[in-house]
From TrEMBL:
It comes from the Bacteria. It is an enzyme of class 2 (transferase). GO terms for molecular function: methyltransferase activity. GO terms for biological process: lipid biosynthetic process; methylation. Keywords: Lipid metabolism, Methyltransferase, S-adenosyl-L-methionine, Transferase. This is Fatty acid methyltransferase. Belongs to the CFA/CMAS family.
Length: 402
C-alpha cells in the first residue's frame, strides 16, 4: 500500500512541476515528462521512490550516494531539477539544521573530522585539483582563465593583501598541501610555517620541503591551532578554507589564538565559506545533514557579520572584506568537470560511494554558491600597535597592479 502511495505522490509532484525528468522504475515502468527530457532517473527498488515522493536535496543526495538510484545527464541540469523538485528555493528556515547547534569541537574530535575529509587519498585529489593541490576558491581575473592560472592568481592575491616582504615570518593555519607557503617563499622570500591536522597533507608537505631543499626556509607541523605557541610572533598569518571547521562557539577562541601569534602591526587573512542567512545554523533542504554525515563532519557556517564580530572581540581590526562567491561557484564547477572526466580512475582509488559523494557534494556546492545560498569572504585584519597605529595603504592599488 505504501509503495503505491509513494508512487502516486511522486508522479503528482513530477506532473505539477513539469520537470524535464524521465523516471524508470525498478519494474521497468516509465514516467515520461511532458517537456523534453534532460535527465534520466533509474530507481533500483521500491524503497528508492520514497526519496522522490517526499524529497529534500539532502535525502535525494543520500539516496544517490547509497546507490538506490542512478542519474544520467548533465550535473547542472540534475541540480536545477533537484531544486525545483524539492522547492528548495523557498525552503528557507533561518534556523537551518539543528545538528550544528550541538557540535563539540574538542581537539580529538577535530582531528578525527579533518582526517575523514582530507585523508582520503592524495592521488584522488590530484585527479581534479590543479597541480599545486590548492583546495580552496580560485580567483578568476578573466572568465576563461584556466583553473591552474586562477589558483595562482588567488595565491598571489592573498600575498598582496598581506603585503608579504622578504624575511618575514609567515604562518599558514590549515596549510593543506602547502601551495600558499611554497608560493610565498618562492615569490616573496618569507620564512614559512604551516600547521595541519591531516596526516597525509603533513607527510606530503614534509616530503616537498625535503625535495625542494627548503629546510632552512619552511617548516610544517601536525598541530591544532590551539596547540601552537610561537616563541617569536609572526609578521603575517593566513587561514585559508580552515575556519569552517572551528565551530561558531570557538570563533573568539580562534581569533584570540591568532592575535597571540601575531606581532603588533602584523596582518592576518581569514578566507572561508560563510552562510547567506544571518541566523542560520546550516543549509536548506536537508543539505546540512547530508554534509555532516558524508563530507564535513563538524563543519559549521556563520554569517560574515558573526565573523567580524568575533574578530573584533579578539582585538583584531578589520581592514578589508571581499566576497568571492562567484569565484567559488566557478572553481567548484571546474572541479566537478575534472572529477567526472576521471570517473573511472576515481572509482578505482576511492570506490563508487566516495566518488558519488564528492560528485554530488561539489556539484551541489557549486549550485549553492551560484544561487547565493552560501558565500565566501576574504577578511583582512591587523593587530594595532600600542599607539593605535596600523600601517596599511590608503588605497587598494597594490592589489591590482600587474
Amino acid at each position: 500500500m505504501w509503495k503505491k502511495l509513494w508512487i502516486r505522490q511522486a508522479i503528482k509532484r513530477l506532473d505539477s512541476r513539469k520537470l524535464p525528468l524521465r523516471v524508470i522504475f525498478w519494474d521497468e515502468v516509465e514516467y515520461v515528462p511532458k517537456v523534453p527530457e534532460k535527465v534520466l532517473l533509474r530507481l533500483h527498488s521500491p524503497e528508492a521512490v520514497r526519496a522522490l515522493a517526499t524529497p529534500t536535496l539532502g535525502s535525494l543526495a543520500r539516496a544517490y550516494v547509497e546507490q538506490k538510484f542512478d542519474l544520467e545527464g548533465d550535473i547542472r541540469h540534475i541540480l536545477d531539477i533537484g531544486e525545483e523538485l524539492c522547492d528548495a528555493a523557498t525552503a528557507r528556515d533561518p534556523r537551518g539544521s539543528a545538528t550544528f547547534a550541538w557540535l563539540r569541537h574538542t581537539r580529538p574530535a577535530d582531528r578525527r573530522n579533518i582526517g575523514r575529509h582530507y585523508d582520503v587519498s592524495n592521488d584522488f585529489y590530484r585527479l581534479w585539483l590543479d597541480p599545486r593541490l590548492v583546495y580552496s576558491c580560485a580567483y578568476f581575473r578573466h572568465p576563461d582563465d584556466s583553473l591552474e592560472r586562477a589558483q595562482e592568481q588567488k595565491l598571489d592575491l592573498i600575498c598582496r593583501k598581506l603585503m608579504l616582504k622578504p624575511g618575514e615570518r609567515f604562518l599558514d593555519i590549515g596549510c593543506g598541501w602547502g601551495a600558499l607557503l611554497f608560493w610565498a617563499i618562492e615569490h616573496y622570500g618569507v620564512h614559512g610555517s604551516g600547521i595541519t591536522l591531516s596526516k597525509e597533507q603533513h607527510a606530503y608537505v614534509q616530503n616537498e620541503i625535503e625535495k625542494r631543499k627548503l629546510g632552512s626556509k619552511m617548516e610544517v607541523h601536525l598541530l591544532d591551532y590551539r596547540e601552537l605557541h610561537a616563541g617569536q610572533p609572526f609578521d603575517k598569518i593566513a587561514s585559508i578554507g580552515m575556519f569552517e571547521h572551528v565551530g561558531r562557539r570557538n570563533l573568539v577562541t580562534y581569533f584570540n589564538s591568532i592575535n597571540k601569534l601575531l606581532k603588533p602591526g602584523g596582518l592576518v587573512m581569514n578566507h572561508g565559506i560563510t552562510a547567506a542567512d544571518l541566523d542560520t545554523q546550516g543549509l536548506r533542504s536537508g543539505i546540512s545533514e547530508f554534509v555532516e554525515q558524508y563530507v564535513f563532519p563538524g563543519g559549521d557556517l556563520v554569517h560574515i557579520s558573526r565573523v567580524l564580530e568575533a574578530l573584533g572581540k579578539a582585538g583584531l581590526e578589520c581592514l578589508d572584506v571581499e566576497s568571492l562567491r562567484p569565484h567559488y561557484a566557478k572553481t567548484l564547477w571546474r572541479w566537478v568537470e575534472r572529477l567526472q572526466a576521471s570517473a573511472e580512475r576515481a572509482r578505482e582509488l576511492v570506490g563508487e560511494e566516495k566518488y558519488r559523494i564528492w560528485r554530488i557534494y561539489m556539484g551541489g556546492s557549486a549550485h549553492a554558491f551560484s544561487r547565493g545560498w552560501m558565500s565566501l569572504h576574504q577578511v583582512l585584519a591587523g593587530k594595532v600597535h600600542e599607539d593605535g597605529s596600523l600601517p596599511y595603504p590608503f588605497t587598494r592599488d597594490h592589489l591590482y597592479a600587474e
